[in-house]
Amino acid sequence: MKDLRSLALEVRDGRLRILDQTRLPFDEAWVAVEGPDHMVALIRALSVRGAPLIGVAAAAALAAFAESGVGGEALRAALAELRQARPTAVNLMWAMDRMGAVLAAGGGAAALAAEAEAVFDEDVALCEGMAAQALGLLGSGEAVLTHCNSGGLATAGIGTALGAIRRGWEAGRIVHVYADETRPLLQGGRLTAWELGKLGIPHTLLTDSMAALLLREGRVTRVLVGADRVAANGDFANKVGTYGLAVQARHHGVPFHPVAPWSTVDLACPDGAAIPIEARDGDEVRGYGPWRWAPAASPAYNPAFDVTPSALVTSLILDRAVVPGEELGRGALAKLGG
Amino acid sequence: MKDLRSLALEVRDGRLRILDQTRLPFDEAWVAVEGPDHMVALIRALSVRGAPLIGVAAAAALAAFAESGVGGEALRAALAELRQARPTAVNLMWAMDRMGAVLAAGGGAAALAAEAEAVFDEDVALCEGMAAQALGLLGSGEAVLTHCNSGGLATAGIGTALGAIRRGWEAGRIVHVYADETRPLLQGGRLTAWELGKLGIPHTLLTDSMAALLLREGRVTRVLVGADRVAANGDFANKVGTYGLAVQARHHGVPFHPVAPWSTVDLACPDGAAIPIEARDGDEVRGYGPWRWAPAASPAYNPAFDVTPSALVTSLILDRAVVPGEELGRGALAKLGG
Question: The domain spanning residue A165 has which CATH number?
Fold first, then answer.
């Protein structure tokens, strides 16, 4: 594999390392990936996260495994295992299916490496495509609210929603960013705040529970969020809390936009009800990391994602187009994909 | 003062102690209150919290101070200081104004002690009154969602919203309780979960960001929350996150009820815009207690409360009446108070 480098993934001299995102923002710890099993564990633990990055990282792990000399049987088993590491984001399945097609066509290590490089490079380009599309929507003096992390840590490039925000700020259209902390795993408080700080973008952190008040105060001109899977009718899954934010944005008349690359669109999935939602351990709600503040005996609800119906979407920002919400339910995505 | 005992406040042999709520659920630490300054610090640190309990505790602290032999001047200064310990909840001002009236009428330590006892005893009765009013609304098989803590820890009695939930469960009308964890200070995850566990009430904890999904799934039949101040037109302040929950309940057609004693109604406050909202330190958003997970350099928004307009209220449950939302804007509260 050629050398690759993004904010949270690196291939150098054929060796794959990832930035352990569970240790951000205080520790920037890079972890050498030992093999596909290790990558599965890193994805499940959210050390590697972000729908596009998971796909890129799984492809790179499989290519590195092939380059280590293992045969087709072991590669197919590793691919199947990687493909199921997390159930909601479709980019992982999409990337693994690309790698699977190379394998099925008799491709060896070099072909798999080339495919993983392509997945990486295309993701970088898709990010710029989304940002360019978003820029066409932005007015002046925009203040954008976002949820979770959809930036350089979530992709191989500048990000989806946060990449668009970055380019919007660089273009002088966005003047301030509000970041939901995004309980339970605090991707906003830890990761988005860290990225915005590194980029020097003026921002304010808030708890998820404060977003409605912020919208009511008229401080937000637009909500931009990422997506883990977009169904054929435009319903989309994203980090839990996104749906509530969409309801609140609609109530306050604030435009609401998911931002996603084409690799996140799953035309085989007719609507949001068909998207599998990952349930995670209740300890993530009873505390954070090693810390606990709720009684161990209290059961907790912990869906990692929720589904926002396309009826609440002002427009979906893709790398290749901006699709108005009202067209999503009328098959606009199938036409774009055809 | 006579002996008094509630879940989080105790007077024994004239000595006032409070349960330090910042240390729950793992440590049940009682703190002897040294005097009014100490009580102000305990209120500001949220060791004593809950709109009704703050009023009760401040009254008891002033009475204990009077019983220690200090004179009128020092008592008036202590009263003024206690009255401003927190700005949003009106019960504190209400209780202090009662104590002030006794002082102004020339009352001494015995009269102040009697007034503090009355404030305590009335709060206990008001809680039962709210629960009785709420019971009239409940159907069978109800699953109630609540925010923050409005139980025995927030009052001298069984609580406001959580007291109504408790009696509803005892009556067999409520079968399950969902508790928002209530960032940033986690009163739901720490305190409501602890109370529900002690009472043996079946419950599930969730992050604030999951409430919309729960409502969409049809798992909640009713939302009950406390209030820190109810304006004359029925707009009310409560823990931040309440307003967003009201928007979501309305979107899903789920009845939404603030539950408050008459001491929380502020007829001098025409509407929600006139309620002062306390802003707290950003470190509460960048972490919890001693723990930090967000960059110290990231500014944070931290309003402790938000205001829900009466237009989003299905009905307001008081100790003396249930007032339909549509009547709140037409002066129903002024008539009840007249």
Answer: 3.40.50.10470
- Specify whether the CB–CB gap between B101 and B138 falls below 8 A: no
B228 as an active site residue: the answer is yes
User: β-strands A236-239, A229-231: how paired?
Assistant: antiparallel
The arithmetic mean of pLDDT across residues A36-61, rounded, is 97
Q: Identify whether B25 is preceded by a cis peptide bond (ω within 30 of 0).
A: yes
Contacts of B24 in chain A (CB under 8 A): none
Distance, first Cα to last Cα, chain B: 32
B74 lies in the same domain as B155: no
Query: With contact defined as beta carbons under 8 Å apart, do B66 and B112 qualify?
Result: yes
Total domains in chain A come to 2
Strand order in A203-206's β-sheet? A203-206, A174-180, A142-146, A222-225, A256-258
From A127, A158, A176, give the residue that closes a domain. A127
Burial class, A37, CB count within 10 angstroms (exposed 0-12 / middle 13-18 / buried 19+): middle
Is residue A254 domain-shared with residue A159, that is, in the same domain? yes
Q: Can you tell me the ipTM of this complex?
A: 0.95
Element (H, E) at A104: helix A90-104
3-class DSSP assignment, residue B297: coil
Rounded to a whole number, what is the distance in Å from the CA of B95 to chain A's nearest CA? Answer: 29
Q: Do A139 and A240 reside in the same domain of the chain?
A: yes
Q: For residue B116, what are the domain limits?
A: 4-127
pTM to 2 decimals?
A: 0.96
Residue B303 is classified by DSSP as: B
**How confident is the model over A229-267, as pLDDT tens digits?**
999 999 999 999 999 999 999 999 999 999 999 999 999
Cβ atoms within 10 Å of B124's Cβ, excluding its own: 18
CATH of the domain at A41: 1.20.120.420
- Report whether A171 contacts A201 (CB < 8 A): no
- Residue B28's pLDDT band (cuts 50, 70, 90): very high
Q: Count CA atoms closer than 13 A to B179's CA, side-chain side.
A: 32
Residue B337's pLDDT band (cuts 50, 70, 90)? confident
On whether both A140 and A71 belong to a single domain, the answer is no
Residue with tokens 């102040």: B112
Q: What pLDDT does A338 receive?
A: 67
End-to-end CA, chain A: 32
Contact A148, A238 (CB under 8 A): yes
Which residues in chain B are closer than 8 Å to A312, comparing Cβ atoms?
none
Mean pLDDT, chain B, rounded, equals 97
pLDDT of residue A89: 86
Q: Which of B194, B206, B295 sits opposite A295 (nearest CB)?
A: B194
List CB contacts (< 8 A) between A250 and chain B: 251
Which residue, B109, B127, B145, sits at the end of a domain? B127
How many distinct helices (H) and strands (E) make up chain B?
Answer: 13, 17
